[in-house]
Amino acid sequence: xxxxxxxxxxxxxxxxxxxxxxxxxxxxxxxxxxxxxxxxxxxxxxxxxxxxxxxxxxxxxxxxxxxxxxxxxxxxxxxxxxxxxxxxxxxxxxxxxxxxxxxxxxxxxxxxxxxxxxxxxxxxxxxxxxxxxxxxxxxxxxxxxxxxxxxxxxxxxxxxxxxxxxxxxxxxxxxxxxxxxxxxxxxxxxxxxxxxxxxxxxxxxxxxxxxxxxxxxxxxxxxxxxxxxxxxxxxxxxxxxxxxxxxxxxxxxxxxxxxxxxxxxxxxxxxxxxxxxxxxxxxxxxxxxx
Length: 290
Fold this sequence. Notes:
The chain has 290 residues and is an alpha/beta fold. It has one domain: Dihydropteroate synthase-like (TIM Barrel, Alpha-Beta Barrel). Helices cover 39% and strands 14% of the residues. It is built from 9 helices and 10 strands. Helix 2 runs parallel beside helix 3 (116-124). The mean pLDDT is 92.
C-alpha cells in the first residue's frame, strides 16, 4: 500500500465504495466510436450492453463509456484529433448509457468526455463519474461547475498535446495542479478527484515509459491515480512494431508495473486478462490474502 497522504481514503462512486490502497480497481473501456484506435468500437446500444455485461462478469469495477475517439486525426483541429460535435457524441453515448444503467443497476458507469453539453446530458442520464482527458483545461469552468452540481467524482487527466516539451513528471504535476485549481474554483472537493498522468497523450515513447517508471512521484498530489496504457502505440513500439491485436502481453507488463508503482485504477480493454494481472500484482504489492 502506498504511504502517501490522500485527500480521502475512500470515495463513493455511484453504488460502490472505493477504498484506495486496499486493492487495484479495473476500469473497462466501452467504446461507442467507430474509429477507436484499438479497433473495438461498438456501433449499437445492444452491443455496448452486451460488452458491459461481459466486463462486469469478468471483474470490471467501472465501465468507461466514450463516443469521441482521441486517436491523432487528419483535420488538424486544436484538439489534435478529429472532433465530433456534442450532438453527435450524445447520439452515440446516451442510448447505451441509459440501456447499461437499466440492465446493470449495480454497475459503476463513467462517461469519457470533455464537452460540457455531453457531461450535463450524461449526468442527467445517470452517469456516476466523469472522465475528462483535458482535466478541465479545455471545457474549463463550465465543465467543472457541471461536475460540481452533479456531485460526481471526476478523473482529471493531464494532456500534453499542444503543450511545449518539458520534463515528464514536472509537466504532469504542473498540468494536474492547474486542473485541481479549476476544480477548487468550481467548488469540487479534492476528495472527488482522481488523477491520470495521460500515458500516450503528447509524450514520446521513451517519455511514456519514463512516466510509468516515475509514477510514485505523483504521490505529491495526494490523489488516487488512474493509469491507461492499454494497447497503446508505445507498447507496440516496445514490441518492435506489434499491431494493436498483439499488444495484450505488453499491456499486461505495463499494468503490473503501474500497480507496483502506485496505480489505484487501471483502464483496460481486455478486462478478464487484466483483472488477473491486477489480482496477482496486488498479492505481491499489497500482500497475499489467500
